[in-house]
UniProtKB/TrEMBL annotation:
It holds the Pfam family HTH_8. This is DNA binding HTH domain-containing protein. It comes from the Bacteria. Residues 25-54 form the DNA binding HTH domain.
């Protein structure tokens, strides 16, 4: 874990439900879109992050392709 991510966790501790799509976007940018590091930075499980991303994408009316 980087110093920057520790600082983020210490200053921005939030409950899982209070993490906004904007928080996820900022964390993704800070970690160069590394989803595992983003989940650690936000203090959530990686699967929870994937579920959040899937929900945001579906709410935006976009389709997920594999």
């Amino acid at each position: 874990m980087t110093v920057e991510s520790r600082e983020f966790q210490e200053t921005d501790k939030k409950t899982t439900r209070s993490i906004t799509p904007k928080d996820v976007e900022e964390a993704l940018i800070r970690t160069n879109y590394n989803k595992s590091e983003t989940a650690r930075l936000l203090g959530i499980d990686r699967k929870t992050l994937y579920n959040r991303l899937r929900n945001v994408i579906s709410q935006a009316g976009l389709k997920i392709t594999n």
